[in-house]
Design a protein that fits this description.
Length: 729
């Protein structure tokens, strides 16, 4: 089956109107930018040329930030940017700049902060009006083409903003100045507090429990996002009855995490035919999603389901994890070269609105036998009246009851119902594959690949799937080979998915370094190959050099400008990310990487910088609640000492010991797999202890539990390992 769907609605529709006209985005590498190359707007890419043009012509900049997977970005493209009259207003009065938020997260985060300060809301498409220097003076998200529901139409907004720039320049500059101050303030809050401890972790856990929706799972009300970091924090708390305080917190944490994972996997946010999760649900019950699927959501959710299986041996959690892997393998992976793609679009065309993923009863009946339909329609809630506003006959597949209940209602044995459901599922998926397929953005981003590689390494180990581990290592090797130059640093993009321009090198941001650093360390734990440990060290050293603030502490998200470098627009401001939105925050992930490395190399400067980073935000973090879950996980690593379970050997006993060592998720536990011939090359802390333990000369495999500067005696039986781990954890 081809994994090359044609470039869908984002590229089509305006070519004919414009007689083959191409703007400068024809030279872009990003799929999102190339989708706009036929528009009559004279778009520019973000770069010096656009800013020089704005200054030379004394025009404001119209900045559009969006993404290839973003439905409303395509709506605004069609309604406004493909309209010749709107395009003429833009070309006459503005220099138009289009940005792909996945390609330039550094640009996106700053202007999101700006528009949030102006309008109180953010999101995509982001529409901002800037002075020629790039300072925002007005902005919003989606603007309708004409006045409606009390919202001004886009043409009116354009003319008003152009007029303000021409005739009220002082007002514009004053407004832009105050917005720039807001960007600088946003997320550079210095809420320092010395020596944060377990009570702060407990507050973040309590905040998640308070927002937990006991009826439908998840946190808060609609729209509902998965909040993977919060789920991991709760799973960690759930596994700590004895050490982390009261047992009722542990039970409540287990309940909140497991109910959420169960309800999401039964909801329409989960793709029941192919596997994988959509980005979020518009309702509280997880029924109707926004249909785009993102690499970063699926990597973190894959970890959640693996961690749930590790700790509570819940078979459904393992099933969902395996199905997610099948979807990622099929749709988001470069099987030949390694690497994970960025996203799959929500829909094929603007008329489609999730039609690829949804079913009318008639459509289901056309591909299933009557007995299959009886089971599938009851199990997946496929009825005459469905769930979609634009077409009420369309059903989002979701699970309301149990298969046992369906079997009983149909008067058939459970096994028969199970077989019919499996056949129905396969037939529905085969039929769906014949539909026009939503676009897959095959761009390979470094940070998202770091997250996905880590998820695959964990899943491959816990679920014992060797080919999943192998693909993760292949992907890591590719990213390190193609995006990492020790003297220069990391690039943000490994490879673009389109056959367009090559694209100027985009420098890696903090996220790229720390996510890839964790992935390299995970690879070392699996293989014992020192080159992966060395890569993690080199990435951390480079990140400290480029992003760490030695005076104010913690990490900036972008590098400092080098001599003579001009930072464009809002990029002059440097931010210290704390909030998980939508990926885990760079400072939390950076602090966690410092702590993991310090446990292996004993470097006090790493421990100090991790503490300083966590102290920088300790005074404000509890106000972020759910959105600071990755901070809670990093702080938990610092509060509870690191435990390394080293499994040494290469036989069936070693595999059994590794399986026991992996049981139960705890954020401070790592399981390291070594062959005896690797004991001569280890990170410093382990090199001081492991090779000198008694009993290493024996024949069989064994496990050693280490913590701090010491290790317990080697053990070779499962019972002894369980006892040693209980002591250490």
């Amino acid at each position: 089956m081809s994994n090359d769907p044609v470039l869908s609605h984002e590229a089509t529709g305006s070519h004919e109107q414009n007689g083959g006209h191409l703007n400068s985005l024809a030279k872009a590498a990003s799929a999102y930018l190339r989708s706009a190359m036929h528009q009559p707007v004279e778009w520019q890419e973000w770069g010096e040329a656009a800013f020089e043009k704005a200054l030379a012509e004394d025009k404001p900049i119209l900045l559009d930030i969006g993404a290839v997977w973003c439905h409303w970005c395509h709506v605004m493209d069609r309604e406004s940017y493909e309209n010749s009259l709107t395009a003429k207003i833009i070309n006459d009065h503005f220099v138009a700049v289009k940005v792909d938020r996945d390609e330039r997260p550094d640009v996106d985060t700053r202007y999101q902060a700006a528009v949030s300060a102006i309008s109180g809301q953010g999101g995509w498409p982001l529409t901002a009006f800037l002075t020629p220097e790039g300072k925002p003076y007005f902005g919003g998200t989606y603007f309708p083409p004409a006045d409606q529901h009390g919202r001004p139409g886009f043409q009116r907004v354009l003319l008003t903003m152009a007029e303000a720039f021409q005739n009220r320049r002082e007002e514009v500059n004053e407004s832009a100045g105050s917005v720039m101050a807001a960007i600088e303030h946003n997320e550079s809050f210095m809420g320092r507090s010395a020596n944060p401890g377990p009570e702060l972790v407990a507050k973040i856990v309590a905040s998640a429990l308070k927002q937990f929706d006991a009826r439908s799972g998840g946190f808060g009300s609609q729209p509902k996002f998965p909040h993977s970091g919060a789920i991991d924090l709760l799973l960690d708390a759930a596994s700590r009855v004895s050490s982390a305080g009261p047992e009722d917190v542990s039970a409540a944490a287990k309940n909140a995490a497991m109910v959420t994972l169960l309800k999401m996997s039964k909801g329409g946010i989960y793709d029941h035919l192919a596997g994988g999760f959509h980005r979020y649900s518009v309702d509280e019950q997880w029924v109707v999603p926004h249909f785009e699927k993102m690499a970063y959501d699926n990597s973190e959710l894959l970890k959640n389901y693996v961690h749930a299986f590790q700790t509570f041996v819940e078979p459904d959690a393992a099933r969902v994890a395996r199905e997610m892997i099948l979807w990622i393998d099929e749709w988001l992976s470069d099987r030949e070269r390694g690497g994970f793609y960025a996203s799959q679009d929500a829909d094929f065309s603007l008329e489609d609105d999730g039609d690829y993923f949804t079913w009318t009863l008639e459509e289901a009946a056309a591909v299933l036998t009557a007995p299959e339909l009886a089971v599938a329609s009851a199990y997946y809630d496929i009825g005459e009246i469905g769930d979609m506003h634009h077409n009420p006959a369309k059903n989002v597949l979701h699970v309301r009851g149990t298969l046992e209940g369906v079997a009983k209602a149909n008067g058939i044995p459970f096994e028969v119902a199970k077989d019919r459901l499996a056949t129905a599922k396969a037939k529905l998926y085969a039929a769906r594959l014949k539909r026009p397929t939503p676009y897959v953005d095959k761009t390979i981003y470094v940070g998202w690949n770091g997250m996905m590689i880590s998820a695959y390494l964990e899943a491959g180990r816990v679920l014992e799937i060797p080919e999943v581990r192998a693909f993760a290592l292949k992907s890591l090797d590719r990213v390190l080979a193609e995006a990492w130059e020790p003297k220069v640093g990391l690039a943000h993009v490994v490879a673009y998915g389109e056959s367009g321009g090559a694209g100027a090198r985009v420098a890696g941001i903090l996220d790229d370094y720390v996510f890839l650093g964790h992935a390299a360390l995970d690879a070392w734990e699996l293989t014992g190959e020192m080159r992966y440990y060395s890569a993690a060290m080199a990435l951390m050293e480079s990140a400290l050099l480029k992003f760490y603030d030695p005076t104010g502490c913690a990490f900036f998200d972008t590098e400092a400008a080098v001599d003579g470098e001009v930072r464009l627009g809002a990029l002059v401001t440097r931010r210290k990310p704390l909030q998980d939105s939508p990926t885990p925050a760079g400072n939390s992930v950076g602090a966690a990487l410092l702590l993991r490395l310090e446990a292996l190399n004993g470097r006090e400067d790493y421990a100090v910088k991790a503490l300083e980073t966590l102290e920088t935000f300790a005074g404000v973090v509890e106000h972020f609640g759910l959105y600071a879950a990755s901070y809670g996980l990093a702080l938990q690593r610092m509060v509870v000492r690191a435990v390394q379970v080293c499994v040494i050997g290469h036989d069936a006993t070693a595999r059994r010991l590794e399986a026991i060592a992996l049981a139960r998720y705890a954020v401070n536990k790592s399981v390291i797999r070594l062959r005896k011939d690797q004991l001569g090359a280890l990170p410093p802390s382990l090199a001081e202890t492991l090779p000198h333990l008694p009993g290493l000369k024996g024949e069989g495999s064994f496990a050693v539990v280490c913590s701090g500067n010491g290790c317990l005696p080697p053990v070779s039986s499962v019972d002894e390992l369980i006892e040693a781990m209980s002591k250490a954890l």
